[in-house]
Amino acid sequence: MEQTKLINYLRAGFSTFWMRTDEPNRVKTNVYNQLQNWEKPFNVSQWDMLQDPNPLTPLIALTEADPNSVTFLYNFHWYIDKPQVIQFIQNTIPVWANEGKAIIIVSPIEKIPVELKKSFTLVDMPLPDDEEIRHAIIHAVPDHRQELLPGEKQTDSVIRVSKGLTRRELDNIYALSLVEKDSFQTDVINDYRAQIVRKSGLADILSTDKNFKTVIGYEVIKDDVMETIHHPDSQGIIAIGPTGTGKTSLLQAIANESGKLAVKVRVGKLMSKYQGESDQNVEALINMLTALGDCFVLFDEFEKQFSGVGGSGDTDGGTSVRIGGQFLEFFEDTPKGIYRGATCNTFRGIPPEYFRPGRWDSAPWYVDLPSSKVKNSILNHYIKKFDLSKKQTAKVPDMPLWTGAEIEALCKKAWMRKIDLTTAGKSIMPMAQVAKEEIAAMREWAKGRTVQAEEITEKINGKRKLAI
Hints:
Elements: H1 3-11, E1 16-20, H2 24-36, E2 43-47, H3 56-64, E3 69-74, H4 83-98, E4 102-107, E5 121-124, H5 130-140, H6 152-162, H7 167-181, H8 186-200, E6 204-205, H9 219-228, E7 236-240, H10 247-258, E8 261-264, H11 267-270, H12 277-292, E9 295-299, H13 302-305, H14 319-332, E10 338-344, E11 365-366, H15 372-385, H16 404-417, H17 421-425, H18 431-434, H19 436-446, E12 451-452, E13 456-460, E14 463-466
Parallel strand pairs: 1-4, 1-5, 2-3, 3-4, 7-10, 7-11, 8-9, 9-10, 11-12
Antiparallel strand pairs: 6-8, 13-14
Helix pairs in contact: 3-4, 5-6, 5-7, 12-14, 15-16
């Protein structure tokens, strides 16, 4: 919290505050100091039910206290809706305001009675910032083990993945990392952050063994993304192309290589038959991701998840349109550190405003069928993975329209049946042939609207450059 913010409110005569936080101890160490160390310090007192179960006691005591007094009421949401409490606060607010007195209710939830809604001011107790996280890292290391303090680069990585955790969580998870790894490890922190996602029930943790060695091709995208993904203003990537071209595998590999906690969102999971619950679920998801901070958020098959968001909303009471609006706002102003990845198997059904740069780091990437060179690399990869014999691979079927997924299916079939690739290929029908009209339409749409994933002309200073 900015020190002057609360003090200016108090000096202006604001007398009733609600501070939502799960960290009452940080309130006592941080906010108390701010009020007591100001040039004209306030008299600070506190109350909880163990001191006196009568909720009127601290209110009466404040009324009788000296001017410039502030009372912190812990978990007062248990009592705030009592008629006598509501009436006392309503009657006494003018007195407190004239004498520079105030109550600050510290609670994990916001539960202000309708009679007092206009009277209370909401104030934030923000989660630990970079400086406090750095202090928590230092505090976690025993005095006799100062060699465990991480270097500056590792400290920056630990701080990045620690955003969104309370000070108590930081202390606990750092201690656990030192016990398990004898060092500060971001994977231990991410394992703990994953629990937050699982407990929410609003999204899934994306666990994958995909990496840039197992996902062949797309070197331009890999280079482009990895140069920007950790920049605080980076937004994300959206990839469009025929099914089976490896878009999902590519984004999973990016998530894995980035070291970010990877979360998979399924919009359908947020939908509810009850009025207003879908909107609440989306808001809760966005709030969770915002609190989570540094993470990779995957929207797989984006076109299916957001189909209907641009319609009239007549069929579902406007729910799809409202949810689309919530996500569009999230895409427009994604909190720093959150990187979004989306895949589309078609351009149809998605309003154009979801594609524009500014909501992503670039125009959509178009991921077409792999080139002959990439196909050979994919084939060799899966021949090795399935340990196919020379006899099985002596002849290779023609693969002019094949995707990586179909090449994998080919090698898997030969491995399972112990047959050669040519025989196995007779049961593979490439999607580019099955859906050739749809793919032709997609290619035509992609011209001038997308960045081509495989158009590489040269390397300059070790970096691949796009063909423009």
